[in-house]
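Subject: two folds for Thursday's group meeting

Dear M.,

Sorry for the delay on this. The cluster queue was jammed most of the week, so I only got both jobs back this morning. I'm pasting them in the order they finished. Each block is the input sequence followed by the predicted C-alpha cells. Could you check whether the formatting survives your parser before we put anything on slides? The first protein is the one we discussed after the seminar.
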Amino acid sequence: MSTSKMIAATIRQVAFKQITPTFTRITQNTLWSKSSLCNSHLLINSNRFLHGRTSVTRKALLASSTANPLRQYTTNSPIVNKEKTNVNQAPALATATVQEENMNETAQKDKHEKRVSEIKDAKLIFNQAFKNVQDVVGRENMRFPKEIIWLMGAPGSGKGTHTPAILRARGITNPPISMSSLLSTPECKELINKGLMISDGKVVENLLNALLDCEPEVGVLVDGFPRSEVQVECLKLFHERMHELRKEFKHTPLKDFFPRPTFRICVLYVDEEISVNRQLMRGKLVKEHNAQVLRSGKGEIKEERVTDYDEMLIRARYQIFKDHYSCLLKLSKIFPFHLINAVGSIDSVMRIILKEFEYQSSLELEHDTYEAISHIPLATKIGVHARQDLIRRLEHYCEAEPEIFAKAVGFIDQEVTPMVARHAISGQALVRSQNPILSDPKIVEIVISILSERGYAVTMDERVHETPKRVDPETWQIILDRTHVYALNVRFPQHHIQPLEQKF
C-alpha cells in the first residue's frame, strides 16, 4: 500500500470514530422522541377510553373548565443523556427527590390543616348563629320541624318544578324555604347577580330563623342548602344540636316539641348545556308571560332573573356548582344519598326522587329501636368531657387516698416506664406483671388514668394461669396453683427515624 493510501485510510478511521458517537446520540434522541410520542398517544387514547366508560353525570361534574396540556419531554432529559450524568450529580438528584417528597408531605399537611380549619370555622359560625337566634327566642322555643328535606342541584335542574310534587308526596304543609328568596336583601342580590357566594354566617342564621317560623309537627323543604363545605359542616352540627335538644327535653312536658330529626337529601343533576338551555328558555317564557300580562291586564307579573338572560352568568353559576362538587361528596359521607338524573319527564324524575327517599329511610333505625339504644353515647362524643372527668378523678385520689395513689405511681415507675423506654421507637409496649396490687380495681383505674393523662393509650387484660400442684389422695382431686397475670398494652406516638442522605 502506498503512503498516500495509508494516509487516506487513517483519515477515514479517525473521521468515523468522531462521527459514530454523534450519530449514536442522534439515533438515541430520535428513538426517545418517537417513544415519547407513542406514550403520549397511548395516554390520550387511554384517557378517551376511561372517559368513554364514565357516566355522563360524573364526567360533567369532574370535568375541568380548561384542559391541562400534556407535558412534553425534550432530549435534555437525564434519561436520554446518561453520558452527561456523572457521580458528582448523584447527591443533587437525591436532594431533588427528597425536596419533591417534602413538597408532597407539605401539600398533604396543608390539606389536613385546611380541613381542620374548615371544621373549626364551621363550629364558630354555627355556634354563633345558633346563639344569636337562641338569645332572641329562648332555648325552650328552639323547635324545628321533624322532617327537613334538603333540596339541591345544578342550576336549571328543575328544583322549583319538582318542589310541589315532593311536598304532596311527603305530606308537608309548611311553605318551602328558598335560600335565594330568603337572602333577598339588595346586598345579597348584588352578590348573587355577580355569581358570588354570600357569607356562611348570614346564611345559617337566616335559615334557622326561617325554620323556627314553620310548624314543628310537619316537615319542611329547604331549597339551596348547603352550598359550601363549611355549610355541610354546619348542617352536620345542626343535626347533632337537634339530637341534643331532644335529649335535654325528653323527660319534660315539652318533649313532643323536640322530635327525633329526620333529614332527607335530594340532589338533582343536569349537564351544563341542558342547564344553559333551560335557563335561557325560562327567561324567554317569563318575558313573554309578563308582556302578555301587561297587554291584557290579567295575571301576575313573574320575577325576571338576571341569570336567565346572560349566558356568561349562567355558565358562571354552573361552574360554582361544579367547584363545590367536593362538598356533595363530603355530605354523602354524613347523610348517604345518590345524585338524581333530572333530564327525564317530571313524572319519571319524581319516581326516582321517591325511590331515593325510600333508600335513605332504609338506612335509619325504626323509632322503637332507636329509642332503646339512643342512651348509649356515640363514639364521636364519648371523649368530649373525658379530659375533665380524668382530671377530677386524679385530683380526688391524690387528695382523698394518697396511699393508694402512691402505690399506683410506684408501680408505673418500677414496671411500666422501663418497658416503655425500651420500646420507645416502636410506639407500643406490652407490660406483663404479676404484681398483686393490680387485683385492686381502684389501683388499676388510677394507673390507667395517670398514663392517659400523660398521653398514653392503655388497655388492660387479666388472665389466670392454672398449674397442677398436687393430687388429694382421699378425693383424687387435682389441686391447682392459680397465678394472675396482668397485661397492659401501652400505645404512644411512634418515633420515625429519618434515613441518612447519600453523601457520595
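Second protein, same layout:
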Amino acid sequence: MGREQWKKIWVGSAGNMVEWFDWFVYASFAVYFADSFFPKGNDTANLMNTMGIFAVGFFMRPVGGWVLGRVGDRRGRKAALTLTVTLMSASAILIAIAPTYGVAGYGGVAVLLVARMLQGLSVGGEYAASATYLTEASAPGRRGFASSFQYVSMTAGQLLGLGLQIVLQRTMSEDALHSWAWRIPFIIGALGAAVVFYLRRNMLETEVYAEDDGAHADPARGTIKALLAHKREAFLVMALTMGGTVAYYTYTTYLTKYLSQSAGMDKPTASLVSFCALFLFMCLQPLAGRLSDRIGRRPLLITFAVGSTFLTVPIMTLLQHAGSFWPALGLSVLALVIVTGYTSINACVKAELFPTGIRALGVALPYAIANALFGGTAEYVALWFKQGGIESGYYWYVAGCAAVSLLVYITMRETRTIDLHRVGRGDGDHDGGRGATAGAAAPGGARA
C-alpha cells in the first residue's frame, strides 16, 4: 500500500490507542488516587467509590454512540473523529488537574465524574467513527486489513498504559505515586489526544461519504428514524458483538486478575503473561484482516465462534491449573488466536452492513449497547460466579454467548464484496445486512 493509505490507517485508528490508554490507566491507577478524592480511613470503600465512577463510563457509551454516530452521519466522519478526540483530551485534562478531597472536598469527585462521563461519550463514539472511516477510506480489497488496525491501536494503548505503570512503579516511591505521580499518565494521555486532534484536523473526508453528501443525501440520515428502517442490521451488530466482546474482555482485562486470584499465580508473573499475550495478539490482527480480504469475513467469524463455543471451558479450566509462566502464556495465546477471528474484522463487517447515510450511527449505537450489556459486565459476571462458588459457570457463560453469535455467523451472508459506493446510493447491492448480491462489485472493482 502507498504512503497515503498508511496515513489514513494511522489517523483513523490512532484515537483508539489514546482512548484505551486513558481507559486502562484510570482502572490501573485507581488504587493510587482513590484516597485523594474521598475521606481517608477506609481504603476499600474509597477504591469501590472510584471504580463506581469508572462504571459510569460504560453507561455513557451508548449515549456517546448515539450522539457521535449522528454527528458522523450528518456532519461527516472527520467531524465525528475530531469531536471524539476533543472529548478525550478534555477528560484526561480534567482528571490530571482534579482537586483532592483536602483542597475542595467532594468537588474533586464531581470533576472526576464529569471526566468519566466525557470519556464514556468519547469511547462510545470513537469505535464507530474509526470503524466507518477505516472501512470507507480503504480500497475494496483491503478493507479487512485496514480495519484490523482498530484493534492493533486499542491493544497498543493497553500495552502503553501497562508499560508506563511498570516504569512508574519501578522509578517512583509508593508515597509519590499516591501523592502526585498518578497524574502523570493522564497528562500524557491529554498530550497524546492533542497530537491526534492535530492529525485529524488535517484529514480528508472519505470519498464514499462526500459522494453521499451531495445529490444522494437523505435528510433523515443519522437519525433514530433512519436506523429503525434497518432494524435487522442493528440486531445483527448486537448479535455479532455479543460473543466477541465477552471473549475479548475475558482474555484481556480480566485475564491478569484470573491468573492471580483463581490460578494462584503471583501478580508480576500474571502481568507478564498478559503483556506478552496481548503483544502477540496485536501482531496477529493485520494478518487475520488480510486473510479475510482473500477468503471472506464469515470463515474467520465462524472459526472464532466455534473455537470459543467448544474450547473456552477447557482453556479456562487448564489456565486455572497452569501454575507457571509458559503454560499460562501458551493457553492465553491460544485463546487470543481464537478471539482474533472476531476482533480483526468486526469493524468492517459491521460497517459493511449499512448504507452510507446511517453507517456511523448503525455501527455505534447497537455496538455500544451490546458492549455495555456483555463486555462491560463480563468481569462482574465472572466475579459473581466466583463468589457463588461456581466459577466454572462463567466459562459456560462465555461459551454460550459465543454459541449465540455462531448462529448469526452461520446464517448471515458474506459482506466482503459489497460496493460501499452503491450501498450508499441504495441502488441495488445492499440486501438488508445479509451481504452482497450478485450485482456487487468484486474486491478490486470499486474506488478506494
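Two things I noticed about the second structure. Residues 305 and 406 are 5 Å apart (CA to CA). Residues 1-204 form a domain with the Growth Hormone; Chain: A; fold (CATH 1.20.1250.20).

Cheers,
T.
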